[in-house]
Amino acid sequence: MVLLSLALAGCGGDHSILDPAGPAARGVAWLWWGMLTAFTLVFLMVVGLWLAAFRRRGHPVRSAAQERRLGLGWILGGGILLPGVSILLLLAVGVPAGQRLLPLPGVEAPRVIEVIGHQWWWEVRYPHAEGEVVTANHLAMPAGEPVDFHVTGADVIHAFWVPRLGGKIDMLPGRVNRIRLEADEPGVFGAQCAEFCGAQHAHMQLHVEAMERDDFAAWLEARRRPPPQAEGHDTAREAFGEHCARCHRVEGLAEGTGGPDLSDIGSRATLGAGVLALEEGAIARWLAEHQTLKPGNRMPAHDHLDAETLEALGAWLETLRP
Amino acid sequence: MSETPHSASGDAREAERLHRELAAVWANPRGWRALTVVNHSTLGLRFMATGLVFFLLGGVLAMLVRAQLALPDQAFMAPGIYHQVVTMHGTVMMFLFAIPMLEGLAIYLIPKMIGTRDLVCPRLTAFGYWCYLFGGIILFSSLVLEMAPDSGWFMYTPLSSAEHSPGPGSDFWLLGITFVEISALSAGVELTVSILRTRAPGMALHRMPLFAWYILAMALMIVVGFPPLILGSVLLELERAAGLPFFTVSGGGDPILWQHLFWLFGHPEVYIIFLPAAGIVSTLLPVFAGRPIVGYGWVVAAIVITGFISFGLWVHHMFTVGIPQLAQAFFSAASMLVAVPTAIQIFAWLATLWLGRPRMALPMLWILGFLIIFVCGGLTGVMLALVPFNWQVHDTHFVVAHLHYVLVGGMLFPLMAGLVYWLPLVSGRMPSERLGRWGFWLTFLGFNLTFLIMHWTGLLGMPRRIYTYDTAMGWDLYNLVSSIGGFMMSAGIAMVLLDLALHFRFGRPAPPNPWGADTLEWSLATPPPPYNFASLPRVETRHPLWENPALGDEIARGEHALADASHGRRELLGGEALTGRLREVIHLPTNSWWPLAAAACLAVVCVALLVRLYPLALVAFVVAALMLLRWSWENGAHPIAAAMGDDEPEAPPLHSRTHDGPGRWTMGVALLADGAFFLSLLFGWFYLWTVSPQWQMPERSPLSLPLLVGAGAAFTLGALWLERRLRALRAGEDDGLATALFAIAALGGLHLLLGAALLWRAELAPTASAHDAVLLVGLLYTLAHGLLAGVLAGLQGARAALGLVGARLPFEPEVVALLWRYQLGVYWILAAALGLLPRLIGGGV
Amino acid sequence: MRRPLPRLTAGHPLQLVLGLTIWSLWFVALYGGLSVACAVAPPAPTQGAMTGLNLWLGLLTLATLGLLGWLARACLTAAWRERGRTRFMAALGAGLHLFSAAGVAFVGLPLVVLPPCL
After folding, report:
1. What is the domain extent for residue B432?
2. What is the pLDDT of residues B409-418, one digit of tens each?
3. Domain total for chain B?
4. Across the interface, do B325 and C40 touch by the CB < 8 Å criterion?
5. What is the pTM of this model?
6. Is the distance from CB of B28 to CB of B52 less than 8 angstroms?
7. pLDDT band for position A107 (50/70/90)?
8. Quick check: A147 and B370 in contact, CB under 8 A?
9. In this structure, are B715 and B616 located in the same domain?
10. Final residue of a domain: which of A71, A100, A129?
């Protein structure tokens, strides 16, 4: 009852299971409301009967045989029949519902997007014959068609979960797991690592953006080319080569590995896997304060760099948008 | 009622004389020697008191967590500290509170309920307590040192492995928990044997109090359920300390193996906690309904079903790891199946209330609270068993809410009911209704405020174990409410504890059997004397006190069996497991320093491993083993135990003069635990072999076939010889027994020698490949058993030479023979699995 | 003075664990068989639930069901015949065998619907 009244208060939010935006999540949301209704009735019945047993006045005199029959009736009815029928129904609903979520072989093989969990950021790869596109902490996908996500973990176990689209799947080092999700309409959805993965598990969010099929194609195409080189920013490029390029990649400039690919960082929604919104000056702030904003993250502190350099780096990185 | 007229004062004098005589044998020593106490009442209370302390500490941790999550973007605790606190909250509540608390309750109550004077292995009880205390202190000290484990209470690898958790936190967890589990296992073993073998004469299985059924199931589940986690902990510690890659993909291991081993233990654990609590409900509810429980047989069936099915559910904690959907469906269906036995119990209780005349008293209030919360938790549990729904809410606060509903509702509330109910037995005073009711309502409302809303927080997408959240998520209000509820619940618990503390001083004195109960513990004086029953009654009903309210007086007057302690032995009656028919008089060991000393040595092992002083660990381990062996020496006809003499009973005889005393059962149940450990190891081997992503089976098995067979042959020869000597012993022949036992021990030594050569020649590279690492552990396992079997046979030889074992004292070789049979089976199975099978199938798989 | 092994009768305490032990062994065989088969030779996902693997596991399920049903019947008839403790054990055994049989049927149901290795 409390839950129901809360429900009126809203099921919304970027991460809400109850505000589904795809077929898989919708199925589960319906399951939830159905189970909630049925089980609330069961709950009220059981507790009601117990309370009634306490409140009863006037106990009829019964023979031992009558008592035994009555007791047996309670146990058979409530202990066997009630749960028996309930779980049979539930299995009958649940197994087909689960089956629909399976990546069954269909007519057309869906698009594959690879997601790799790192402590504490997301690497997203779009395999393509004409060259792979790699982004970080930002996942674009076409709306209105199923997409197969192939997920794995780079270091520890993470879990890939876009609550408004559907269930989660673990990202295991050494294994590739698959999950099929679909977004009904273009939109932006929150996603968060769902398996505890260490100190910054809380700050491991992924910005998921579903787009029209054509927009998605264009989005990919734009990232297949090196980012445009803005005028000036030479000191920043130099500093980047010196201090950042070992871990970070920028298409056409640096081939670092270990940290997020920064080729399109200027076009992202957030920094630090959801710590800061990407506004003007945000990157410079992140570079200066990232160990305060997200303590323990794997990027070393930049105390040895002066504020000017950091600001120059931030300004240049903001220009990296396809 | 007795026919002969007694004079009241004569009765009282006789009861007093008997009390003094028994007390002289059974009373606890004071001062420093209180550390040597082995009495089950004392140790049960120590278990519970210690458990209560850890409960409070765990509760403080919970409040720290709620304080951090009360508001968004809180910096009350740094993430590192927060994760230590969260991990320790779960660990402390599960391993240091719930299990030991319920064990303590069972240790305290079971002998009193089944009509006997103590548990069958009193020194083991003491040993278990010290292991629990030391393990708990070691584990909790990590938090004080700010080095606590921080990878969540289920310690998933690789997060908990050396690479990703380089500090000693994980080591504290693995070593501390393993240490504590020794205590759970020892309690499990001895509770099983006590319930089966020391019930009051005439108390056939179907007349046993339901509580004993529940505890029997719990004890057996501990025996089978804890070994997988012990194995997992040993393997993970070996990986962390020595680099054996059991859970590392690149070395051929698999992190999912840890999850299987953990949840193979972890899910039964939930029922290990729930069953005794349900046992409390099944004991109290009929008392307050004023009638026997409806459907005794149904409830027993429900207990057995729960005990089994709970071992078939573990994968429902792993629905998101990518197991085939069909396999998930099996586990989903099995998880739903467990709703049936639970519903049977709930409706049996309901029918009991319906057909009885229920009285409302403080314990019943807690039971009603239990019902409401637990039914709710059970229903969300059925929801979670549904795979697609599980995929959405797994690892969110929905699960956190569910598990608290099940554990707090299913364990804490019945426990509180039980504490209030049995308090008068312990203290002789009644708890306060007024303060108690306040405590109940605050706890109940606070609990629901915290956790009912948390379901919703989870559905809105809040994952568990995040140390902070952004206000944009829309979770602020719900978290704040949860935190307020949490503090309210704490206030309730504080009030309950205040009542508990005050009642010892201000409670009104309890009349005998204050609640009008039917079970034997209420026939005792309050507080009960150290020997419980001055004389041991025959019980042929499920409700002894309802049928004969004067039973307590009869017992105190010594009108029943064994009303004599002039021989100075601690004696109780042993019966047949099924019928309760009288079989032997069991003599128990008395107070001793050995349990404390051995546990202290093991604590040194634990600390030495933590600080990586391996030589010290080895020395302390050897000393502990020697102490345990020395402890086992004081047995049978040893003067400290029960020397041969004229004052020993003939019919029934003392157990050490028979072939099948309770010690043999203890060994049997202990080997059951050992077997569960071994099966887990075999499971690990086959799991890695078939499923691990980068497993590498070498072209040629490194195990030399001749040595493998030779070592086995030596042991088989020894085992067969031992069996022959046992047959002769049963026929009353003990000529040359000592020599034969020495020779058998020598064959054990040869076995060991060949086994060591096998290991040596294999030239394993255990740090490079999981294959070699498993081989190493498997071989060490069987060699350790070979060593123990050989040493024990040798000691038996020495005892035979000293006249402590022989035709009149045939008991101990029978116990040792069980170990030999076990090792015989295990060795050949292992040889087949590790040495032969890869040769037959080849390394291709 | 060794007694011969007690005959396995309906009143034997083994009835307390036999049915569910069979259930457990069946469950292990089912899960283990499926896992190993999927690791070694997974059938093509296009076959849906109509694979040889499902068939074999289904046959195993039916056989277990038959065995448990037979045991339940044996215990049930004994429970009608006997009195006292033996009756208690036999009735309990019958109930447990029946539950195990229902459990086998229930847990085995998804075999009909789901493809084995996805």
Report:
1. 40-505
2. 999 999 999 9
3. 3
4. no
5. 0.95
6. no
7. low
8. no
9. no
10. A100
